[in-house]
């Protein structure tokens, strides 16, 4: 993302400084809020953009985060790391966006499939390979949807959104080894349910 036109990021802002800003923000100090915005806006956008893959969407997510922070400032308590709190909040909002986008896309795909089938010959007369591929894709989605939440999230970010293991680690706040472990679990479950069909339909690296 290009942040060259913005006020320079205070990259070395300590948690102590951010806590001090938080105390001032709680009392309604606009200057303190603007300082926090300048300190954290760009790095938060960088992290969000790493997995939503859209600068505009990342900007919107972070802007909304800061707006919510200001509206609920009287409830602001940073007992632990303010930076950790902000990055976790940004990740959660990005996950919500991805889940919503996936739902919209899935509904659109289902609608398009229904339209194609209803406008052609009966399903029994369609090429066998098309029907087989659609059925395997449906079964893969069922298995993925039934995975434990964190395993499912890693699988969706990797296979639906083609994120690297490093980007997934940043998005989920875990190590790349943790990502690899979750994807191994997901692949094992898919192979157990689908056998060789799984490997032939989507990349499993």
Descriptive report:
The protein is mainly alpha-helical. It has two domains: 15-88, Rna Polymerase Sigma Factor, Chain: A (Orthogonal Bundle), CATH 1.10.1740; 121-201, Arc Repressor Mutant, subunit A (Orthogonal Bundle). It is built from nine helices and no strands. It has helices spanning 15-26, 30-52, 55-71, 82-118, 128-145, 149-160, 165-172, 176-194, 196-201. The chain starts with 14 loop residues before the first helix and ends with a helix.
Rg over CA atoms? 22 Å
CATH fold naming of the largest domain: Arc Repressor Mutant, subunit A
- Summarize the main sheet: none
Shape: elongated
Number of helices: 9
CATH arch. level architecture of the largest domain: Orthogonal Bundle
Measured by DSSP, the beta-strand proportion falls in under 5%
Counting DSSP E segments of at least 2 residues, the number of strands comes to 0
Query: What level of helicity do the residues show?
Result: over 70%
N-end to C-end Cα span:
27 Å
Low-confidence stretches: 1-12, 120-127
CATH superfamily of the largest domain: Winged helix-like DNA-binding domain superfamily/Winged helix DNA-binding domain
CATH class of the largest domain: Mainly Alpha
Structural class: mainly alpha
Q: What would you say about this model in short?
A:
Helices cover 74% and strands 0% of the residues. It has nine helices and no strands. The longest helix is centred in the middle third of the chain and has 37 residues, at 82-118.
